[in-house]
Design goal:
alpha/beta, Quinone Oxidoreductase, Chain A, domain 1, Rossmann fold, 2 domains, 7-stranded mixed beta sheet, 6-stranded parallel beta sheet, 20 strands, oxidoreductase, Enoyl reductase (ER) domain-containing protein, zinc, oxidoreductase activity, GroES-like_sf
Length: 348
């Protein structure tokens, strides 16, 4: 059930002050606009893009000029405002597109140049006790969903969007580069989209082991090993989900002549390497994946049918005061971590 708002108009929040400087402190509680809903944050997943801000201070030109609240993978419950009853558990789409531009009109809200994206400067995120959102950004959940699973519908949506771009055909061979949370979810979605032989490339052994447990046919530590499994032919489709500037080049090496490549990962330093002659001579089709479109309905169905195991991603759980530890562990790949989930009220 939704709590009563304290009279004090402040809240606890995890604010990023600089590179590797995340502090939990008092912050102003957001005031909801007339067209917004006030939400009590229940669970927040730590995403790889959050880590880019944590480790590099920015993603490309997007940089905070003052202490900032990260967090865009989250679930919350309604406090006040909007048509949903107080206490309703919701997943929240962090992408507030303008709805008016050419790209929104064409059905690509994820490409809106006027987007207000929660947890990306200057728009505050969900690593806090409270946040506001518009009613159209809320997705009420069926019975049986817990807050952490609801939060991870957002990365599941990213994976679904990536597979939409891949246009996978039944029994095509697939390689997924990177067995972090996004890569592991992409792998599971690809299987339900009809993938044939599935190879995962990941340098960390514990992540390779989890990939095998979740259904990969092979898990290797390098692109050379992945290509060798095909006797030099290459796979039909590669989905790249690493943070390495070399990830796209390795993906191009693994994919077959005339194959398809979807780049999902965000590289460290905001640049990647891709050999022009290789991709030209192979005649590759390359797409870059940005966030997602309207896919929450499909994400909910996949979870409800047991087609993806999101729980396997949630290796570490923290209260809000533990957010700095959550980020440090995940940034340094310590303690067998895949993904941290932060509970601002410590009640899940």
């Amino acid at each position: 059930m939704a709590d009563k708002l304290p009279k004090d108009k402040t809240m606890r929040a995890a604010l990023l002050h600089g590179v590797r400087d995340l502090r939990v402190e008092e912050a102003p509680r957001p005031e909801r606009a007339p067209d917004e809903v006030l939400l009590r944050v229940r669970a927040v997943g730590v995403c790889g893009s959050d880590l880019h801000h944590y480790l590099e201070g920015s993603i490309g030109s997007t940089k905070a000029s003052e202490p900032f609240i990260l967090g865009h993978e989250f679930a919350a419950e309604v406090i006040e405002g909007g048509p949903l009853a107080p206490g309703t558990l919701v997943a929240v789409d962090p992408n507030r597109s303008c709805g008016l531009c050419e790209w929104c009109a064409a059905g690509y809200p994820n490409l809106c140049p006027n987007v207000r994206f929660a947890g990306v400067p200057p728009y505050q995120g969900a690593l806090a006790e409270y946040i506001t959102a518009r009613p159209d950004e809320l997705v009420a959940l069926p019975e049986g969903f817990d807050a952490a699973t609801a939060a991870l519908l957002e990365p599941l949506g990213v994976a679904i969007h990536a597979l939409d771009l891949a246009r996978l055909k039944p029994m095509e061979s697939v390689a997924v580069l990177g067995a972090g949370p996004i890569g592991l979810i992409i792998m599971q979605v690809a299987r339900w989209c009809g993938a044939g032989h599935m190879t995962v490339v990941e340098p960390l052994e514990y992540r390779r082991n989890l990939a095998l447990k979740l259904g990969a046919d092979a898990a290797v530590s390098s692109w050379e090993e992945a290509k060798a499994l095909t006797e030099g032919r290459g796979v039909d489709v590669v989905l790249e989900a690493t943070t390495s500037p070399l990830g796209p080049q390795h993906a191009a090496e693994v994919v077959r002549i005339g194959g398809r490549l979807v780049l999902v990962g965000i590289p460290e330093g905001d640049e990647f390497t891709l050999n022009a002659s290789l991709v030209r001579r192979k005649g590759l089709s390359i797409k870059l994946s940005r966030r997602m479109g309207h896919v929450y309905g499909r994400a909910i169905q996949m979870v409800g049918r047991g087609q993806v195991d999101l729980g396997a991603m949630m290796t570490h759980r923290f209260g809000l005061e533990g957010a700095p530890e959550a980020f440090a562990l995940q940034a340094d790949y310590k303690d067998g971590i895949i993904k941290s989930v932060v509970y601002p009220f410590g009640d899940d």
